[in-house]
Write a structure and sequence with these properties.
Layout: E1 3-11, H1 16-27, E2 32-38, E3 43-49, H2 55-64, E4 68-71, H3 80-109
Antiparallel strand pairs: 1-3, 1-4, 2-3
Length: 120
């Protein structure tokens, strides 16, 4: 039997329970030897006997429980556009939070004796 290992991206995971659910479903698929899913990177690696199962069956089982699995090949473009959009959103959330926090911090700091000279 020929053993094959494939890397794939997974979308839709939110917690460790999602990782556990995917690993349980794929482990119970006939022919699967090993499955590793990483929540932080949203990636997975599966090792299986290609005569007993195939990657399409594994992906079908993952998609059936509500996640989206995409095979990673050397030609697959990385999902940098989505990650850049997420980073941009986090940057704006930080800026707005900092602007809203500044007046509160200013008011709290002026109660210290070394800050009495600063007027609110």
């Amino acid at each position: 039997m020929k053993v094959e290992t494939n890397d794939f991206d997974i979308r839709g995971m939110h917690c460790a329970a999602c990782v556990s659910r995917i690993e349980n479903v794929v482990t119970n698929t006939e022919g699967v030897i090993d499955i590793n899913v990483n929540l932080a990177t949203e990636k997975g690696r599966v090792t299986y006997h290609n005569e007993r199962t195939n990657i399409e069956t594994i992906f079908h089982n993952i998609n059936k429980i509500g996640f989206e699995a995409i095979l990673v090949t050397p030609n697959t473009p990385t999902n940098t556009k989505r990650k850049q959009k997420d980073l941009q959103l986090l940057k704006w959330k930080f800026i707005i939070s900092a602007l809203l926090t500044f007046p509160l911090a200013w008011a709290m700091l002026t109660h210290f004796s070394w800050m009495e000279s600063i007027y609110i």
